[in-house]
Write a structure and sequence with these properties.
Elements lengths: L10 E8 L2 H11 L3 E8 L2 E10 L8 E6 L12 E10 L3 H10 L8 E3 L2 E7 L5 E7 L22 E8 L3 H9 L4 E6 L2 E5 L7 E6 L13 E8 L2 H15 L7 E2 L4 E6 L5 E6 L27 H7 L17
Parallel strand pairs: 1-4, 5-8, 9-12, 13-16
Antiparallel strand pairs: 1-13, 2-3, 3-4, 5-9, 6-7, 7-8, 10-11, 11-12, 14-15, 15-16
Length: 326
């Protein structure tokens, strides 16, 4: 039946583009207190790192990942891009984070309310628009203890993403008909879609009509990945895309820690469907996640060459004035 959904996909991860690799690493593990879950390379451009940040285990729904391209031109928010990435924090932690961002010299806007939840918006050193959302129930989720941020205030994974679109309706049809989301509220030109409770369960569609097109680059999102439990569920979602929306996904690609297909949703934002398995402990134990450079088998023979080409992660960190959330 058209539009039939068997699952609640939620978000698996979000992948963005940064500049300097060391600065990116310091910001997300230091200022925000996330765990570096995996230090690997971009499988399609292996002279570039691919960093995965998340919780202690790198659970789907907690992951923000980066391709650090040192000389990437700055991106520009606009139509056809994900304009903001939001993290979940416990409901009572917005005050803590307001003070912490000030202490770190980050230009945050005063807390506001969206759909009844307190939101703190700011930007990372490359201009990626971020938000912290105080969420009921987040305190019950596992917290990564980085030794600096008290566990009771730690980030609890992704809250969701905001997508800027000329027309939200076709994208909404894919969210509800294939990815298991439902519309949960509207505030002016933005609509909230949810896929159950927990990390990665929110997508906000911001309809702006004939607005300036976005430009991908440093500080912008490359793609948004949604969850499939396994290959079978992923295949069902791919079939629903083709059958009900006329969208043809790519062939499946093995990303070592999950298996992926990609497609452009109707607003031209790149979406991915990634399997939950096998996960990040497939090539190193949980206690050692993120410690060593990990390569997929097809690149292992080039380890020496690639290690020499990758930028060093020690030494002085280039500074940028940290943008706000505009």
């Amino acid at each position: 039946m058209r539009g039939t959904v068997r699952h609640l996909a939620r978000i698996h991860h979000v992948t963005a583009i940064s500049g300097n690799a060391r600065r990116n690493l310091d910001f997300y593990t230091g200022a925000l207190g996330l765990r570096l879950v995996k230090k690997t390379v971009n499988f399609d451009d292996p002279t570039t790192y691919h960093f995965y940040y998340g919780d202690e285990e790198g659970r789907p729904g907690t992951l923000l990942t980066f391709f650090p391209w040192e000389h990437a031109a700055p991106g520009r928010n606009g139509v056809g891009l994900a304009e903001e990435v939001a993290f979940r924090v416990p409901l009572g932690s917005i005050g803590y984070w307001t003070h912490r961002l000030v202490e770190k010299g980050l230009a945050a806007r005063p807390p506001a309310k969206r759909f009844g939840e307190p939101v703190l918006t700011f930007g990372d050193p490359d201009g990626l628009a971020l938000a912290l959302v105080g969420t009921t129930g987040a305190s019950a989720d596992p917290a990564w203890d980085n030794g600096e941020i008290p566990a009771e205030h730690a980030i609890r994974g992704l809250h969701g993403v905001t997508l800027m679109l000329a027309d939200a309706a076709p994208t909404a049809a894919v969210l509800t008909g294939v990815l298991g989301f439902r519309e949960a509220g509207r505030e002016g030109s933005i609509a909230l879609f949810e896929a159950g409770e927990g990390a990665g369960g929110k997508v906000v569609l911001h309809a702006v009509g004939n607005f300036l097109a976005g430009r991908q680059g440093r500080g912008s999102v490359d793609h948004v990945a949604f969850r499939a439990t396994d290959d079978s569920e992923q295949a069902g979602m791919v079939e629903a895309l083709r059958r009900d929306h006329g969208i043809v996904a790519t062939e499946q690609k093995d990303r070592q820690y999950f298996r992926s297909v990609y497609f452009r949703e109707p607003g031209q934002i790149l979406f991915e469907i990634a399997t939950d398995r096998p996960g990040f402990t497939v090539d190193e134990p949980k206690a050692a996640l993120g410690r060593d450079l990990k390569l997929p088998p097809f690149l292992e023979a080039r380890r020496g060459e690639l290690a020499a080409a990758l930028p060093p992660l020690d030494g002085d960190v280039p500074q940028l004035s940290t943008p706000g959330s505009a």
